[in-house]
Amino acid sequence: IWLGCLNGLWSFEKDKFTWHGNENNLLKSTIEDIRQDANGSLFYATRGNGVIVFKEGHYSTITTASGLCSNNCKCLYLQGTDTIWVGGKNGVSRLVKSSEGWKVMKLNLNGNEANYELFQIEKTKNTLWLFCNKGLVSYDLTGSNVESAPQIYITLFSVNDILHSKDTVRVFGYDQNCMKIEYKGLSFQSLGHLTYEYKLDGLDTAWHTTTGTSLQ
User: Which residue, among 67, 3, 65, has the nearest Cα to 32 in the 3D structure?
Assistant: First the structure.
């Protein structure tokens, strides 16, 4: 019997408990859930280290650096051997196996993923059932796009080379017309290679694209 505990991974066999933290430092993590697929690979949902994967004698991790919603993971649901649903402090992620490894995509829960803390995930046919701090949430997977755009953050706003608060609504004069905005999209998975779309309402009728992180 495998046991996920506050101080890591334990097993119980032949009336004896064994702690496995000495085998690998990752196994000292608080483990919230354990799952094993049909190929014998083991997956551990941890508090602080994302998802630990044990395959063919080797350990690896899937974390926010790979696009996971949070490193504080609570629960796992294995859909075959190529899809894993991960629930945690900031919503739910879907892991899909590819030739390069596991591709991580966030499930868009009405744009408020951070408000959902998952405790258990189940699936029946095309419906995902999420047991969370909001109660019981059902999500229809039929034709849904689980990959959501990264969050955009405005980091600087200036008018005529004078800095202004980016969080305050202001009214400017006709001669205060040289505006500069700097922004950043938060997406670890994209490694900084993002394309942004922008439009100036009232002047532009079409969206424009750029890879830069500022507009003037």
Answer: 3
